[in-house]
Design a protein that fits this description.
about 240 residues, Helix Hairpins, rod-shaped, binds zinc ion
């Protein structure tokens, strides 16, 4: 019946392997790396928004400038005309036009000042975000490194355990290994177990003393199994 204790060793290693795999997929380092990634993405997005605001305002400043020059040219022309007209009604009309163009010209100045404020504000925000971005980048780099080293450590553990498992499985008959694999599908951690007193280590139900005695007396190819869950019992 030592073949079952060999099988129990295989199961112990299998459990250790699945626990290690579970740890790999639930690492704190992954959570930290993801948090660092989104923190950086958030800052990058804010910088991109500043860039867009600056670019839009700069493009409008160019247009406003062009329009201001056109207004200046028009004013020069209108003032020249004003000097040549004699009819009072014509002069009045010209003066009215000059006043309108002057008002528009002044509104363009106001708009340009406003846009320069937008650019300045955007540049200021960017200069504040710069150091934050640099620090978020180094946090992410450190978190990425920590994650990769944590993963490497567990991967090494898993490959050592896998090697150990292969060696342990070698001494177990192939047909028993197949039965074990089939039982594991239903009870991954309890295909084979020891008794705790009269209690099955797998399903935790009590087995009668009569059944225990009968199992202990088994010989040859017979292998003791829990009457409740079918787990192999190691004595
Ligand atoms: Zn059981």
């Amino acid at each position: 019946m030592t073949v079952l204790s060999d099988l129990l060793s295989v199961q112990t290693t299998d459990i250790a392997i699945s626990q290690a795999k579970h740890r790999v997929s639930h690492l704190q380092e992954t959570i930290d790396r993801d948090a660092a990634k989104s923190a950086l993405a958030e800052i990058d997005a804010q910088i991109a928004l500043c860039d867009t605001e600056i670019a839009t305002a700069t493009a409008e400043i160019v247009k406003v400038d062009r329009s201001s020059h056109e207004h200046d040219d028009k004013l020069v022309k209108l003032n020249k005309q004003l000097k040549t007209v004699i009819a009072p009604r014509e002069a009045e009309a010209l003066q009215h036009e000059i006043a309108t163009v002057t008002t528009e010209r002044s509104a363009l100045d106001d708009r340009e000042l406003e846009l320069m404020g937008v650019v300045e504000n955007g540049e200021m925000k960017k200069s504040e975000l710069g150091p934050l971005q640099a620090s978020a980048k180094s946090t992410l780099a450190a978190a990425t490194m920590a994650l990769s080293s944590a993963k490497q450590k567990i991967d090494a553990e898993i490959s050592a355990l896998t090697e150990q498992r292969s060696a342990q499985a070698l001494v177990v008959p192939k047909s028993l290994m197949s039965t074990y694999e089939a039982k594991r599908k239903h009870r991954p951690d309890g295909a084979v177990c020891r008794l705790n007193g009269p209690t099955c280590g797998s399903c935790h139900l009590d087995i009668s003393q009569g059944e225990i005695n009968a199992m202990r007396a088994m010989t040859g190819d017979e292998l003791p199994e829990c009457p409740h869950c079918g787990s192999f019992i190691v004595f």
